Amino acid sequence: MSGVSEKANDTAGHRKRLRERFLKGGGAALADYELLEMVLFQAQARRDMKPLAKALLKRFGSFGNVISADPVELAEIDGAGESVIAALKTIQVAAQRLVHDEVMDKPILSNWQRLMDYCRVNMARNKIESFRVLYLNNLNELIADEEQQRGTVDHTPVYPREVVKRGLELHATALIMVHNHPSGDPRPSKADIEMTKEVRDTAEKLGISLHDHIIVSKSGNTSFKDLGIL
Fold this sequence. Notes:
Layout: H1 2-25, H2 32-40, H3 50-60, H4 63-68, H5 71-74, H6 82-103, H7 112-123, E1 130-136, E2 142-150, H8 160-169, E3 174-180, H9 190-205, E4 209-217, E5 220-223
Parallel strand pairs: 3-4
Antiparallel strand pairs: 1-2, 1-3, 4-5
Helix pairs in contact: 2-3, 6-7, 8-9
């Protein structure tokens, strides 16, 4: 029994030291596996979480990839039960809501980097391609962010009339389209370019401007406006 007690004391002491370092120096004071341990403490009250933290990082490659991983894949790691998965996904959702609050009901064009951060947090690591539209009012404030379509690993069907119809329902005066490339290559395809021009032409006829179309991926972003396509 004394051996079990000593191990429990060691674990408790380790956790205490990690918390003290975190509170004193912030995230920069901890390695990725240590920060992941801090998250996993919420899932298991007494267990040593260092081996699981390192196993998760070995499998998925980075802290961001761990919290963004599919729950089915997380469950394949020994020790990653429901409580662990819930703790990880809570961090992911918290990050998404934080960046959402930074852009919602605020002028988008003057907060472009925050918008890019928002798009990357929500979409860059997704394994399925999805297409969302950011609808803006006449002050260029974000009034709605809606996922229009979800597809396969390399294709999402987009219907320009539906995009514009929704804009009219919201009384939007402008929109920004965003989709992700799970392949990691943010360059637009020929189909991406053709669809973008079709949406632009349809929207303009009804008084709605297409400010940009952004492709996000793990390796970076692409702006159709910067490319001269819009």
